[in-house]
Structure formats: C-alpha cells, structure tokens
Design goal:
Layout (H helix, E strand, L loop, with lengths): L12 E3 L2 E3 L3 E3 L11 H13 L4 E8 L11 E2 L3 H15 L4 E7 L15 E2 L18 E2 L2 H20 L4 E6 L4 H6 L14 H19 L4 E7 L5 H9 L6 E5 L3 H4 L12 H8 L6 E3 L6 H9 L5 E4 L1 H5 L3 H6 L14 H4 L36 E5 L3 H13 L2 E5 L8 H5 L9 H12 L4 E4 L6 H5 L5 E4 L3 E3 L13 E2 L8 H5 L8 E6 L5 H11 L3 E6 L14 H10 L3 E3 L2 E6 L3 E6 L5 E5 L2 E5 L2 E3 L2 H7 L11 E4 L9 H14 L14
Parallel strand pairs: 3-4, 3-13, 4-5, 4-6, 6-9, 7-8, 9-10, 10-11, 11-12, 12-13, 14-15, 14-17, 15-16, 17-28, 19-23, 20-21, 20-26, 21-22
Antiparallel strand pairs: 1-2, 18-27, 23-24, 24-25
The chain binds adenosine-5'-diphosphate and iron/sulfur cluster.
Iron/sulfur cluster (SF4) binds next to helix 10 and helix 12.
Length: about 675
C-alpha cells in the first residue's frame, strides 16, 4: 500500500471553482492526434485518467479558423468541435479526473498552412515550422480591430469549452505564441497601450484572463500558462502585475528547449529556483513540470513550497499509471521516462505520438492496446526469444504476460543489448531505464526463464522444442562509410585507420590524435561520440552530410543543446559534406552543393553511417536447418535485426509481434475511423 511519505501527493486541491482529487496534473501536450484523430485522442487521454491523474488536459486548442500550426492541435471553433471535445471530456470524467483545455492563438508562430490566411501577430514575424523548415511567409501586425476580434474569439472558445465539459480553461501565455509576442520587448514593437512598459505588454494577458473568467462564469477554473525565469528579471515584474488574477498558474521556464530538454542536458525537477520565487509572490496554486518520475522528488518539491501540483507530460506518456502505482505502493513498476523526446518528434511530422518506454502510447484506440492490461491466452505454448536487447526483452515480457512459457536467451552476461552499451556514453545514462524496467518486470514473471551467456545457433534453437521463435539479435554499426548520402563504401587507402562505433561502444581503447567523426546517420550518436572522444583528449572534427549536425534532433528538441555542447567542447564542425576517401594522413570531403573536394588532415576516421542487421540466425532458421523440412515453430524477426532503427521502434516491434504470436491471422493492421 501507499507509503505515508507520499500522502501529500494525494491531497485534494481546490483550483478556483473546481477541485482536483490529487496533485497529479497532466499538462497540455501534443499528441499528433488533434482534430484529425479524435477517437485516438479521447481514448489516450482516458487511459491517463484511468491511471490516476487528477487533471488530464488536451493539447493546444485553436480558438478560430484563422489560426493553425504545423503541429496538430484540437479545435473549439463551433458546435461540431464542442461535440468532438465532449467525447474526450466524458472519457476523462469517467475516471474521476478533471479535463483541461489550452486555448491557443499562435500569433506569428501560427503557420496557417491549413487556412492559407496570413498569420496575425507582429509585423515581420516569420511563420514557424517546428519541423525545422524555414519559411518565407511573414505575419501581419495586429491592429486594434484584430485585438478586439481575438478577445472575442477567445471568450467564445472559453464558452464552448465549458459546453464541451472542460473543467479547466487555459490562457496560454508561453512558448512563443501570441501572448509571448506581446510580453517580450524584443517582439513587441507597438507604440499603443499594448506596447512599451511591462504593464502595457501584460495588458492583453490581463484582458484575456479577466474575460475568460467572465466567459466560464464559475463553471470552470481559469489557469494561465506563463514563464517565470530567474535569468530574466522582467518575467517576475510581469508576474507581479497579474499574480492573483487567474484561479491558478501553470508556470514554465522561458526557454522551451530547456522545459522540454532531453535527459542529455536537463535533469528531474530542474526549475525549483524559478518556482520558489514565484510561489512567494502569489496566493494561487502553482503547477509546473520537471520530468518528475520519482515520488520522492515530487513530494519534496511540494513540501518545499516550490509548487502545489506535479505537472507532467513525458512522465505521463511513459507511464500513464504513474499516480496509481505510487498510490498502490508499486514503485518498482513505474516505467520511468528516459528523456529521449521521441514522444515529441512525430507530432510535428503529423503522425500520432509514440514513446520509447511505453509502446502502447498512441495505440490505445487504433490497436486497442492498454499500458497495463494484456489479455492472457487460454492455451499455453513455448516461446523462445533470442537476444535480450530492447526488442527481445519487451517481447519476452509481453509473451510472459500473455501466459506463454518463455525462454529468453542472451549471448552476453549483461541484458539490455544496445541500451546497456549506449548508456555509458556522455549524457545517455537514462537509456538504462529501458533495460532496468524490463528486467524488473521479467523477474516477476515465473513463466519467463532468462538464459545469459547463451549465444544461440540454429541447432541450439531446434533443440529447444519451442513452438514460436522470435529472433531479436539486433544490429551492428558498419565501418565502410556507406550511408544515407552514398550507397557505396568510402574508398579506404592502404594503411587508412578506421575505428568502428562498435569499438567505442564496447569501451575499447581508441587511437589518440585527430579523429574525424563522419555523421551520415543524423541522430544523436555521432554527436555523443564526438563528445566522448573530446573527453578522452582527442582533437575532433565532426563532418556531416546534412546541413547541421544531429539534423534529426530538430524533432527531439535537442539539436540546439547538442550543437552547443559540440561548440563548447571545441569540436570542429563541417556541414553538407560527404566522406569520399580516407588515407593514412587525411580524409577527403566533398561539398554536396558544388561537388568540390577538399582534404582534412586527420589521423583516423569513425564513420557513423549505417547499421547492419544481425540476421544470420534468422536466415539459417528460415532456410530449414536439420533435415530440411519446415521447422516445427513459427518464426519471427523483431527490432533492429528486422530493420535497424530507434530504441522506440525496437520496443514497439517487440510488443507488436509478441501480441500477434499465436493469434488468429487478421488482415486489418489497425482500426480506422469509419
Ligand atoms: P534490439 O534493439 O533490436 O533489441 P540490440 O542490438 O539492442 O537489438 O540487442 C540484440 C541482443 O541480441 C544483444 O544483446 C546481443 O548480444 C544478442 N544476440 C545477438 N545474437 C545472439 C545470439 N545468436 N544468441 C543470443 N543472443 C544474441
Ligand atoms: Fe519519455 Fe522518451 Fe517516452 Fe517521451 S518518448 S515520454 S521522452 S521515454
């Protein structure tokens, strides 16, 4: 049962006219579902409510057809949207949670690619595409009539929010949106009563809070999402002017890349100082995020008076049942977020949310998956999983939950596959949570046997008498330099020194001197390895075929911090160049724009380009070993040994295939809206 140290997390709290049953607050977060996938959205939010969150919010919500963004948002434009949102609030209410909605006007940041109307915000603002694509469109400045319209639209949307059943309505004044453009002296160039002094720049926020309070008329609480930051005195000056106006506050730091910082750069509960100061300045409750996954940290910040509620987006994605698990004293079962930001990456690409730790995230409706419940099979059969990386461990866990007798065979002593090696690299320590949670869950399943130091051959597999065999033997980084920008291997002269990524991952000694890390992969690995080499004292040049290092990390909101870390560590950066040849003394890089080559003097090269599936065991089994007849088991390949990809993709593959094993064949891969 619950540890009394955490009782404070379960005390109800009054938020204006409504009361939350506990201190767990799922703040608004994108889901890639928005108005396009309302059923998926309603069921996903309902699962969070079922998991014990006292408040569950939707993502940002457009208040008017003239405002849209490249990220998917929900809408409250008219009665149709009220009906759609009412399904979500009903699903959330069913489990005793309050439902919140973040009313949104994007200002210049609303790209309006849908509506094709010019974004309205500040003069000469630039349309913002979170996918990192620059856009030539500019916004137009708001005149007084526009401001009056926006106030009207916001009030109308607030009334619709109440009609749709929302208990909490946001005035959204952070993250670079319309109200931030007014608050920020750099973007507010107005000479009227909305520009100039802090009081003037806060005016629209004040008006919207007052008008939203009027619009909801005591039937819902009004919260304001606002940035206070000890690095920016003026944020507190602005806060003082409206400190007691809304029913409560949702406070963030100024910089979204810090608020949403990946675990490589930002730890748990990182904003205490900002919050303590604000707390002393208001009588209203404060909710704030901090990627909280441990109940001790949660209880500590509430006791310390830094905040009243534990805001969470990512921890609620990785574990929708986090509050229930704390309540039931099942701390070992908490699936801790690893701070990789894969959850954030796909919504800007228009695709449903996913999570490295929680493969059911985003699949609650369209596949009917649940983060805590797996239906058991009636007939028992034996399954062998070969390889205990993220894919194999997840598959073994799910097969175990489904009631199979499971053997999990791993070649090495240590479980975890790639996460066990990668977590030793700079900034990646939290990757180990992918392994640790699964080890803990598998340990609790009496029907799953783990065999370490068990490198399996095809004959070994045949000798197990398994009914189902899942091959999860992973992948290995290649050393030949072929990758996204060149299909053929790089020309290597005699005596050229190439060190493979696998050698670094295995912790082997690498040569000293000047290393060229060549990135044709574009995720975190090349940058992390460049930093690791700098720590070992190497001179490092990082060359990439992309227009910036860690180009895909644009989607995970970490490329700025990642590139800052490279700059601070004195890593020389060469962009938009392909590695074409390596000699003992230098490497030849070719400009992808001009085709011109130049040589850089380096002692050795590390290509971070492709990974190759370790598919030998699968292929041998598929070729019918032994007497040549079809083997007496069903055969699957999962994770990186099927197709090398993210850790999230490997975990997902393990879950998906394990759910399919022994199930009747079906030809609809997932539900679609009729
Ligand atoms: P994934 O991300 O798909 O889970 P990983 O590379 O992380 O893949 O993990 C693959 C695991 O499979 C590694 O731990 C590796 O030691 C193990 N493995 C590879 N070949 C065999 C084999 N023949 N028998 C048992 N384990 C194997
Ligand atoms: Fe956390 Fe990564 Fe899951 Fe996002 S995808 S919730 S950052 S584990």
């Amino acid at each position: 049962m619950r540890d009394p140290r955490y009782d404070i997390l379960f005390e109800p709290i009054k938020l204006g006219p409504v009361t939350a049953k506990n201190r767990f607050y799922q703040v608004p977060h994108c889901s890639g579902m928005g108005w396009i996938r309302p059923k998926s959205l309603a069921v996903m939010r309902a699962v969070k409510a079922e998991g014990g969150w006292g408040v569950v919010c939707t993502e940002f919500c457009s208040i008017h057809p003239s405002v849209d963004s490249t990220s998917l948002q929900v809408r409250l434009w008219d009665d149709h949207d009220v009906r759609v949102q009412a399904d979500a609030t009903a699903a959330i209410h069913e489990h005793g949670a309050l439902a919140g909605v973040e009313l949104w006007h994007g200002g210049s940041r609303g790209s309006n690619f849908d509506s094709r109307m010019p974004p309205m915000g500040r003069e000469t603002g630039r349309a913002s595409t979170r996918a990192g694509v620059f856009h030539p469109g500019q916004s137009r400045g708001l005149d007084k009539a526009d401001i009056r319209n926006i106030r009207q639209w916001h009030g109308d949307a607030a009334r619709r929010a109440v009609e749709a059943g929302f208990d909490i309505v946001y005035v959204y004044a952070t993250h670079g949106n319309l109200l931030t453009e007014f608050l920020n002296p750099a973007t507010n160039q107005r000479s009227d009563e909305y520009g100039g002094s802090v009081a003037n720049r806060v005016r629209l926020v004040r008006e919207l809070i007052e008008e939203t309070l009027d619009a909801v008329a005591g039937k819902a609480a009004v919260v304001t999402r606002f940035a206070v930051d000890t690095s920016d005195e003026e944020t507190y000056e602005a806060f003082t002017l409206i400190n007691d106006l809304p029913d409560f506050w949702d406070l963030t730091p100024n910089d979204y890349n810090v608020e949403m910082g990946s675990s490589r750069f930002v730890g748990e509960a990182a904003f205490d100082d900002n919050l303590k100061r604000a707390k002393a300045m208001t009588s209203k409750p404060i909710v704030a995020v901090g990627r909280f996954t441990t109940p001790d940290a949660m209880a500590r910040v509430i006791r310390a008076g830094a905040q009243d509620m534990i805001g969470a987006a990512r921890p609620s994605i990785a574990d929708p049942f986090l509050p229930k698990k704390i309540e039931e004293g099942r701390l070992d079962d908490i699936r801790e977020c690893i701070g990789c930001n894969i959850c954030y990456a796909h919504d800007a690409l228009g695709k449903p949310i996913r999570c490295t730790q929680n493969p059911t995230m985003g699949e609650e409706w369209r596949r009917g998956w649940h983060p805590e419940r797996i239906t058991r099979r009636e007939t028992v059969s034996r399954a062998l999983v070969v390889g205990a990386g993220p894919a194999g461990m997840e598959a073994a866990r799910v097969l175990g939950e489904r009631g199979f007798d499971v053997m999990l065979a791993e070649a090495s002593r240590e479980l975890g596959g790639r996460v066990s090696t990668e977590c030793r690299l700079p900034g990646l320590a939290e990757w180990a949570r992918v392994r640790d949670w699964r080890v803990g869950q598998i340990d609790k399943l009496p029907n799953v046997e783990v065999y370490r130091d068990s490198a399996m051959t095809a004959d070994d597999v045949l000798a197990t008498d398994a009914d189902h065999v899942l091959v999860a033997t992973g992948s290995r980084w290649t050393t030949d330099g072929a990758g996204g920008s060149r299909a053929e291997p790089v020309a290597m002269a005699d005596g050229a020194r190439v060190v493979g990524v696998e050698e670094m991952l295995a912790g082997r000694e690498v040569p000293g001197g000047h290393a060229l890390v060549y990135d044709d992969d574009h995720y975190y690995m090349a940058c992390v390895l460049a930093l690791a080499l700098r720590q070992r004292g190497n001179l490092v040049t990082l060359a990439t075929s992309a227009y910036r290092p860690a180009a895909w990390c644009t989607h995970t909101a970490e490329f700025l911090a990642s590139n800052a870390a490279l700059a601070e560590a004195d890593v020389e950066i060469v962009t938009h160049h392909r590695l074409d040849a390596v000699t003992p003394d230098d490497a030849s890089l070719t400009c992808l724009y001009t085709g011109m080559s130049h040589n850089v003097d380096v002692d050795w090269v590390m290509p971070v380009t492709n990974r190759k599936a370790v598919g030998g065991l699968h292929d041998a089994l598929a070729a019918h070993p032994g007497d040549g007849t079809a083997p007496p088991f069903s055969l699957y390949r999962i994770g990186d040994c099927d197709a090398p990809g993210t850790i999230a993709a490997a975990v997902y593959s393990g879950y998906r295939v394990a759910m399919d094993v022994g199930a009747p064949a079906h030809n609809v891969i997932y539900e679609r809206v009729p």
